[in-house]
Design brief:
By secondary structure, the chain is mainly β. The protein contains one helix and 13 strands; from the N terminus they run E-E-E-E-E-E-E-E-E-E-E-E-E-H. The chain has a four-stranded antiparallel beta sheet, with no helix packed on it. A four-stranded antiparallel beta sheet has the order 10-11-12-13. Strand 10 and strand 11 form a beta hairpin. It is globular.
């Protein structure tokens, strides 16, 4: 037998190549049988006969390795945070609370979402947190309603770091969204 996809694939001591081309949705699948060599004591190596046997399972080889992503693919499509399938279709997601999702960042078992500040009711922050099932966990305790969140910088331990449109660094608790600290750019420069 020869292997047309991967010529030269051989198994164990038998130096035998195997192929089983079957049609599949992702292309031809080539089965390779694993062979094993029985153990021989060193003193019997010259006189003992070597035996090969086929292993129990098949190894599937395809042109592209399978993708095992533990985290789902996410994208902002038409202002909505969408979870995507492998084919790029929408599998679920989160509609914006007020305007349109502009930015999101994956955290520990959560997603931080920033919406466009225009269209949000006065006094409501444009930064909030969703759990893995896209349920609202908290809305940020934002220090100034007239200076909305302009970017999510990331997590630092149990702290979410964000920046306002005027450049103020805001630190929030990742569990509750409670305000922990505010760092003004002038104070940080000196």
């Amino acid at each position: 037998m020869t292997d047309t996809v991967n010529p030269g694939i051989t198994g164990g001591c038998c130096q035998q190549t195997c192929q089983d081309s079957r049609p599949s949705p992702t292309g031809p699948i080539v089965s390779i049988f694993w062979f094993s060599l029985s153990l021989i004591a060193p003193e019997d190596a010259g006189t003992a006969k070597k035996y090969c046997r086929r292993g129990g399972g098949d190894l599937f080889v395809s042109a592209a390795p399978p993708v095992n992503s533990e985290s789902p693919a996410l994208a902002v499509i038409d202002g909505t945070l969408c979870q995507l399938t492998r084919e790029g279709l929408r599998a679920g997601g989160h509609s914006p609370l007020a305007s349109a999702v502009v930015e999101f960042r994956r955290g520990s078992l959560r997603y931080y979402v920033r919406e466009h500040p225009f269209g949000i009711l006065p006094g409501l922050p444009n930064l909030y947190c969703l759990d893995g099932a896209f349920r609202l966990q908290w809305m940020a305790e934002w220090p100034d309603a007239n200076d909305p969140c302009a970017g999510i910088l990331g997590e630092d331990g149990n702290t979410l770091v964000a920046v306002s449109s005027s450049g103020v660094i805001v630190r929030l608790d990742v569990i509750s969204g409670r305000l922990l600290a505010v760092e003004h750019p002038i104070a940080a420069a000196s």
